[in-house]
């Protein structure tokens, strides 16, 4: 009989310890989740990612039987929070509720001459939760009642009308760049640290206009504080049925969507990724509280997962990267 230390050494020498470790890993995956799994939002509270994350996390708690706290980690237009998940331990306990800017930000870093803080291949797409066209909103006290009036005034006063965004090269920046390019107008870009602060800036009178997700903007439109002039979708948005699309208004190439989706570190075991996917599929299909919350926010469920979401993410990212390259370097 070998003493315990000798037995361990002998097992290691014969290559049996890796099998034991593998078995332990399998057991850990079978028990997953055994503790809270946090959901990172790379923007401040109040923006589109936050609107999607909070009811989704609450629904997941009912499936996982564990807490799913939402942690806002803003900075650099979404780069800091996204990079933190890309570098997180691949154990399934750190997920990202991302927006479509996720694939754009690394390219924007390259354009600015910086090494990207993360790359998209460091993150695994798990499931899409929502997909909403953005909507152009202005304060009700602004002089423009239609898109035509807004564009005409912008042409008379190049660079005088401001618009906000969640940061340079963010989804809100790219969406507005599509419109200004199509309309041939020059607006003054004012970047914020997220869509929530940008919306606050619009409501407080700091900004003249904003490309917003429909969810955050809808309550203020209903209350009469904001006016919508157009939307970036191919079809009109629920809750904004009287607001024509830009395609209807003569801008056929101005089409853009803010989508929200859950990502995990790329090295997360396939079994744990599938556990997340199964849970998200379940809550998006059958959790009435989640669906009511997103419907009330004007951002209904538009679920995708698996190869369908991977293909959507790849194609959408390629289109947005081309738009960012057209914007070029921002001083």
| Shape annotation | globular
CATH superfamily membership of the largest domain, which one?
A: Bordetella uptake gene, domain 1
Spatial order of strands in the largest sheet: 2-1-3-10-4-11
Give the CA-CA distance, first to last residue. 73 Å
Question: How would you characterize the largest beta sheet?
Answer: 6 strands, mixed
Total of helices: 12
- Which parts are unreliable, with pLDDT below 50 for 5 consecutive residues or more? none
Secondary-structure class:
alpha/beta
Tell me the total number of β-strands: 11
Query: From the alpha-carbon coordinates, what is the Rg to the nearest angstrom?
Result: 22 Å
Strand content: 15-25%
CATH architecture of the largest domain: 3-Layer(aba) Sandwich
């Amino acid at each position: 009989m070998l003493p315990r230390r000798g037995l361990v050494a002998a097992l290691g020498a014969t290559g049996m310890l890796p099998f034991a470790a593998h078995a332990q890993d399998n057991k850990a995956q079978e028990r997953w989740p055994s503790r809270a799994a946090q959901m990172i939002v790379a923007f401040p509270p109040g923006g589109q990612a936050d609107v999607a994350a909070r009811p989704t996390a609450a629904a997941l708690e009912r499936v996982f039987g564990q807490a799913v706290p939402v942690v806002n980690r803003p900075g650099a237009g979404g780069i800091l929070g996204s990079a933190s998940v890309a570098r997180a331990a691949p154990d399934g306990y750190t997920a990202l509720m991302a927006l479509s800017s996720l694939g754009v930000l690394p390219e924007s870093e390259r354009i600015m001459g910086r090494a990207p803080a993360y790359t998209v291949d460091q993150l695994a797409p798990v499931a899409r939760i929502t997909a909403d066209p953005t909507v152009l909103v202005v304060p009700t006290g602004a002089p423009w009642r239609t898109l035509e009036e807004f564009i005409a005034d912008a042409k008379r006063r190049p660079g005088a009308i401001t618009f906000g965004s969640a940061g340079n090269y963010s989804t809100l920046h790219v969406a507005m760049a599509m419109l200004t390019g199509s309309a041939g107008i020059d607006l003054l870009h004012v970047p914020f640290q997220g869509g929530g602060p940008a919306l606050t800036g619009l409501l407080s009178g700091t900004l003249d206009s904003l490309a917003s997700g429909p969810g955050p903007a809808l309550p203020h439109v209903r209350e009469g504080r904001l006016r919508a002039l157009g939307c970036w979708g191919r079809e009109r948005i629920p809750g904004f049925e009287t607001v024509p699309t830009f395609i209807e208004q003569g801008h056929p190439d101005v089409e853009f969507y803010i989508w929200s989706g859950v990502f995990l570190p790329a090295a997360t075991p396939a079994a744990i990724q599938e556990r997340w996917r199964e849970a998200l599929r379940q809550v998006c299909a059958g959790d009435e509280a989640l669906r009511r919350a997103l419907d009330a926010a004007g951002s209904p469920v538009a679920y995708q997962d698996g190869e369908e979401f991977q293909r959507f993410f790849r194609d959408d990212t390629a289109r947005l990267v081309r738009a960012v390259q057209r914007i070029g370097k921002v001083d």
